[in-house]
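> agent: user asked for a holo structure of the chain below bound to zinc ion. Plan: (1) validate sequence alphabet, (2) canonicalize SMILES, (3) run complex prediction with ligand conditioning, (4) return tokens. Step 1... ok. Step 2... ok. Step 3 dispatched.
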Amino acid sequence: MYIDTHAHLTDESFISRIDEVANGWREAGVGKVINIGYDIKSSQESAFIAQKYPEVYFCAGLHPSDGEPADALALEKIYELTRHPKCVGIGEIGLDYHYGEDRAAQMRSFTAQMDLAAEISVPVSIHARDCTADMLSVVKAYAGKLPSIVLHCYSMGAESAKIFSRLGCYFAFGGAITFKNNRQICEVKEVVATDRLLTETDCPYMAPVPYRGKTNEPKYVGLVCNKLAELYGVSDGDMQRILEENTNNAFRRNK
Ligand SMILES: [Zn+2]
């Protein structure tokens, strides 16, 4: 089976037609979808979607760009969501300095959610953009305190990948690795072993070739697996088995 470890089914492009989207991924051989919250509302909606579809699991958390602070009330709500039997982690959380938002506030919300994940021992799904040095220091501080750390849409280069890999992180790749001129993945694959790999769509964004520019959906995640199989020189079937085992190791309660 193919697996999408990072989808946003609560996006307005899906919410009214999730049955159709689910039929699409089922026909395409996608057997597991982890839906990721980015604020309290989308995290709560993710729980409802996961309840309705047996192969859907979810993470609950506050994305750095959404500006919702991880205050005591928000942390309590995230904690409650992690008690849901289909919640497999806290996410997506992290740092995004691309548009120059308040870095100190982002760091407070990020580490508050990392503290919660460490305290209750759940995995995290991390978003990182233009923040490599700070992300390295946070991950170094928390590695070993959490069951696992997943770096979603990995784009921090091969040198950092070496360090993240040593710290036991998982690397989730999406449609971008299928784009022409994506040299980064060729360098990253030299330092990231197959047991650290995950596939994702980050849908509705980042559709893989040949759907680039269109609305992405979980049904396209097989194209990302095909590309990883090609890059690592293994068969697609073998890559599917590797990714399934990795997903089971990276996210708990997802069987
Ligand atoms: Zn995302």
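> agent: step 4 complete. Summary for user: Residues 2-250 form a domain with the TIM Barrel fold (CATH 3.20.20.140). The chain has nine helices and eight strands.
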